[in-house]
Structures are given as C-alpha cells and as structure tokens.
Amino acid sequence: MKDIKSASSSTLLAELIGIETTKKLYSGSLTKLLQKGVPEPELRPMFSARELWERLYLANLTDQHILHSPDVVKHYLGMVYATKRHEVFLVLFLDAQNRLIACEEMFRGTLCQTSVYPREIVVSALDHGAAGVILSHNHPSGNAQPSRADETLTHAVKAALALVDVRVLDHVVFAGGEVVSMAERGLI
C-alpha cells in the first residue's frame, strides 16, 4: 500500500486482519465492527491496534495543552465513545496548564441514562490533583442535544467542584457523529 491516508477503510482493515477476514466481517462500517463488544478472534488484531492507538493518542495529549483546540478534545472523546453501546460518563482531569492528567470512565449506565454522583467526581479530582475538568457523556439513543437533566447535573458538579477550587471547563455530549459542547452554547 503506497498511500495510507487515501486508502479505503476496507483496504486498511485488510492490511491489519487479512483480505479474507475483511471480506467475511466488514460490511461497510468500522463503527459496527467496533461496537460488537468482545471481539471475535479474527478481530483481535484490530482491537489491539485500536487500543494501542488510543493509548498513544492519550500519551500525546498529556504533553500538550489540549484546550488550544476543542476539536482535539472532541476527536479523542469520539475515539473513546466509538465502542460504547450504553451511556457512559467520562471526566477529563486537567492540570493548571490545561494538560490532560487522566481520562476516567466515572459512571456507566443503560441505553438512555446514567446515575452520576458529584461527590465521586470531587474525590477523583482531588486524587488527581486536578485544577480543571471536562465532563462528557454519550447519548447512545442518537440525540446529542443536552437535556434539562444534563444542564442541572452540570451545574451541580460545577458547584461541588468550586468548593475545592476545581473549574468545570466544558460538558461535551456525543451521539453518533454529532458533538455538542455546552460551553460553546453558553450553558456552563
């Protein structure tokens, strides 16, 4: 393969898991393959490559000021959410220069809701020595618009973290390919 960037998804997948396996498993969507849950033996190399890529990407983020570009945050979180079929609440913990300290899956829920406890977020922020956080969750149902409950939760977490001098910089909601930043909408 001469030009990786212009190669099709099926060509890249064939390079990773072989042509015959790709023909057998690929149906036009990498997302569907990634959402299968526990990978079939044929897909293990792809899941391993994805996990390595995510770790490399996370390691690179810890050396940069991730807030210089909201798109970097959205892209990273998009990779994390690609395999989630249930609602997940993530917190990005940041240092005083807005560099990533850690990304933690704090809470896991069902298809349409997750119970979130502000106290646990405060404890983790203190454990990480975070100066700021970016909250994030997905809506597997497909609608990225923040609900009233999302807004209420964001304000409750923001108030709890303010007591220990930790800033809430954003709350990002994902659904399919759509991403909504509550900070960009003036909801933080």
Outline = elongated
Q: Characterize the largest beta sheet: strand count, sense, and whether it forms a barrel.
A: 5 strands, mixed
- Poorly predicted runs are none
Number of helices, where a helix is a run of at least 4 consecutive DSSP H or I residues? 7
Run of helices and strands: HHHHHEEHEHEE
Coarse structural class? alpha+beta
Question: How do you describe this structure in short?
Answer:
With 188 residues, the protein is α+β, with helices and mostly antiparallel strands. The chain is built from seven helices and five strands.
Could you describe the 3D structure shown?
It is built from seven helices and five strands. The chain has 188 residues and is of the alpha+beta class. The chain has a five-stranded mixed beta sheet with strand order 2-1-3-4-5, sandwiched between helices. α6 packs across α7. The N and C termini lie far apart (47 Å). The mean pLDDT is 80.
Which key features would you list for this structure?
19% strand; single chain; 5-stranded mixed beta sheet; alpha+beta
Map the helices and strands.
Layout: H1 9-17, H2 19-25, H3 30-34, H4 44-61, H5 70-81, E1 88-94, E2 100-108, H6 118-128, E3 132-138, H7 148-162, E4 167-175, E5 178-181
Parallel strand pairs: 3-4
Antiparallel strand pairs: 1-2, 1-3, 4-5
Helix pairs in contact: 1-2, 6-7
